[in-house]
Amino acid sequence: LEGEDMDFSSYNDKCLSLIVGKNLNVIDFPMDYIEFDFDGLIFAALALPIVFFKDGRSVYSSFSQYTESLLGLVGQKVSSVLETKTKLEITFENENKIIVPLDAEMPNGPEMATLSGMGKFIGEWSKPEFL
Amino acid sequence: MRWMTRDWIREAGGINGYGYANANPLNGTDRMGTAVGPALYFGYIAASALVAYTTSIWAQIASNGGDPLAVNQAQAGQWAITGAEMMAGGLLMTPISTAVRIGESGGVCVPDFIASPNGSIIRIPQGAEGPFPVMNGKGVMYTGGSGGFGLPKNISSVRIMDPKFGFQNGYVNYGSTQANGGWQSLSPITGKSVSPNDQWWHIPL
Asked: Model's pTM, two decimal places?
């Protein structure tokens, strides 16, 4: 990050693109959601993400190896993101990806994911039925 | 100076629903359209004091086993004073000379609380600055404060989010900045972290 002077103003509806090119440094598990620290940008997945591996495997939160799968992403750089009404997709340089289902049953909404950093709240994504 | 739209507290802000700071913008500010005219100002304060006093009486009776003779009138009186102060602080169209904070944005007048159109009270952390737009433009936030007005001290910020389906007046989320710079949602009652499934994550207005 270029520090506190970073300009978010042009990112309105596509603010997830702020994390492209950032490294995933830390994964935290507060309460019942998951926080990803991308070089100081904190992406909170309130709906638990699904991990998709390059080899075609997918790991859901109910799987026993879920935590290990997520932690295996630490250190990877984000190569691209995709925002749709029903999902947020974050792809890493090794082609593994995580997908946050915005239409998941839990949490009960409306917020399903948030992005913040450097003391600023940058944005939130809502469950489609609340839009 | 006039608002582009009608004052959303309606006649409480004065007969002229489009007036700004009682047509005296050099000596007052009303960024949120919440300042009231003098006719209702003292009425609101008195009503707030009465509500706080009555609430204290009932709370004491509820906690002492139902004995009205054991009510501590001094405590109820203190509640009344606090209620009146909160209402006065929130409604008072404070002169610029004492209320403006000079910040990067050029200075804003921060109220102690904001009343939503349906009467819900949004308490602003003491000393917070704002309102600043949420970066993706879907709400505003006050930040940089600490507790006050019944809020736990670790609450530094509040974000007031735009209306959504099921939240026709929007919703409120209290929080603070974590050590890593990220947002942490907190309960305005306990100051503890809350789950996205908790009622305090989306407080309807």
From this structure: 0.67
